[in-house]
Amino acid sequence: MTGELERRAVAAVSAERIADDLASLVRIPSVTSDETAAADHVAGLLRAGGPSVAVERRDVDASALAADPAHPGSEMARTILPLVRGTVRAGRPGRRLVLSGHTDVVPVGDPGTWSTPPFEPVTDGGRMRGRGTCDMKGGDVAAVEALRALASLAGPDGTLPEPLAGEASFVGVPSEEDGGAGTLAAIRAGWTGDVVVVTEPTRLAIVTAAAGAITFRLTVPGRAAHASTRREGVSALEKLEVLHAALRADETRRNAAEPDPRMRRLGMPYPTIIGKVAGGDWASTVPDLVVADGRYGVRLGQDCAGAFAELQAVVAAACAADLWLREHPATVEIAGGLFDAVDQPADLPLERELSAAVEHVEGDAPAVVAVPYGSDMRLWVRVGGIPCVLYGPGDVRDAHAADESVALDEVVRCARALAAWLVRGLSAG
After folding, report:
1. Where along the chain do its domains lie?
2. C-alpha Rg value of the chain to the nearest Å
3. Marked catalytic residue, from 176, 177, 178, 250
4. Which residues have CB under 8 Å from 335's CB, separation 6+?
5. Arch. (CATH architecture) of 2-209+341-427
6. Mean pLDDT computed over every residue of the chain
7. Neighbours of 217 (CB within 10 A)
8. How do beta strands 96-102 and 167-173 pair?
9. Residue of 394, 415, 400 lying closest to 134 (CA atoms)
10. CB neighbours (10 Å) of residue 300?
11. Is 167 assigned a catalytic role?
12. Of 136, 191, 197, 147, residue with least CA distance to 384
């Protein structure tokens, strides 16, 4: 009977509904710190699954959560963290399966670099373009559709039929892009389970290990002078160039020293970048201060504190080797999200179960890989103590970019595989 239930759930996934739902969600400009409308909309998509989907919306006090010792940092000011959950239950207790995704997106950057307006989704050649299509509203919609497909199996009393047992949920969270406070809020609210699949863009590979990242701020001093006598001053921008060169050399060293073959295959598993620079107050004045924000990779087997200690050592050594910075050292501090690296056993049962479901639906087993970016997986594992993998539609190379897009076929395939996994997982209860 379980096989028949699985077949029915997979068949219930609608490609047309997925396209419509993704377009409607992308139209909501849920840039990090402004996710309430998106959470409300996801609640509506869950309710469309019928009365067997129990839907909850909760706004968590962001300032109260900030006092939590496990708080992962944030880059945006906010007062609330809007959470949404939909749950489908069987008539008897069993395993609790969780699908999860974030509702926030990054800013669009220069709108002139987009072919079409970022929040007006366009479908072309089987791909939908718009901010958040890949990272990660395509994954959100796939997960919601999988849960609704499971709900379609429910009987008149709203519960899933035997032999299914337990419950399955979709948990939608904010604030992933600037740290992950939304997932911490969900964990503290008890919106957890026995296993979690986060539908981040993985090109339908299963991710069990991931590098992390810290957001840092460099404050670099100089000495002001009139432009006509610039040699009387010290340009803080030129001193930032000294530090930037040291960071690039450190990046090369760290990546070359990586022993794990899964990470080495990525080419550069631990990138360092300075993404934002501000300084100077007059075109004809030597700048006496530059502030630069950047990202520093957290190595596998390392936490954020260890990565920050490495970063501090690199900055200190570069300052010590420079005549000006030796006497006027730059400072470095944590300025945003804290993404610990995360690794899990190679024989993780969750990976095997999901892989088997994907292979049954797709005909081929998915790749199992590691990735060079941080995600909420590390919070489910390290704070929640829950096995977790990433599996979702889209390619991270399209994330955060102009003309971000996702293949609609991948979203549909993901939803079908997840629907099969939900039925299998609950029948194992």
Report:
1. 2-209+341-427, 212-339
2. 23
3. 176
4. 75, 215, 216, 217, 293
5. 3-Layer(aba) Sandwich (3.40)
6. 96
7. 15
8. parallel
9. 394
10. 20
11. no
12. 191
Tell me what percent of the residues of the chain surpass a pLDDT of 70: 99
Residue closest to 105 by CA, chosen among 118, 114, 87: 118
Alpha helices in 66-108 (DSSP H): none
Q: What is the pLDDT of residue 79?
A: 97
Tokens standing for residue 138: 């395509």
Dihedrals phi, psi of 8, to nearest 5 degrees: -65, -40
Q: Is CATH 3.30.70.360 what the domain over 212-339 is classified as, yes or no?
A: yes
Structure tokens at 297: 């990779």
Beta strands in 162-301 (DSSP E): 167-173, 195-198, 206-210, 212-221, 272-279, 289-298
Residue 87: phi and psi, rounded to 5, are -130, 135
Catalytic-role residue among 6, 21, 35, 104: 104
Strand, helix or coil at 331?
A: strand
In the block, tokens 């292979």 appear at: 359
Residue 176 is among the residues annotated as catalytic for this protein? yes
Asked if residue 102 lies in contact with residue 172, where contact means CB atoms within 8 angstroms, the answer is: yes
- pLDDT for 1 equals 62
Cα distance between residue 244 and residue 273, in whole Å: 9
Residue 24 contacts residue 12 (beta carbons within 8 Å): no
| Per-residue pLDDT at 429 | 58
Give the separation between CA 284 and CA 221, rounded to whole angstroms: 17
Tokens of 118: 């970022």
How far apart are the C-alpha atoms of 140 and 178, rounded to whole Å?
18
Q: What is the pLDDT of residue 428?
A: 65
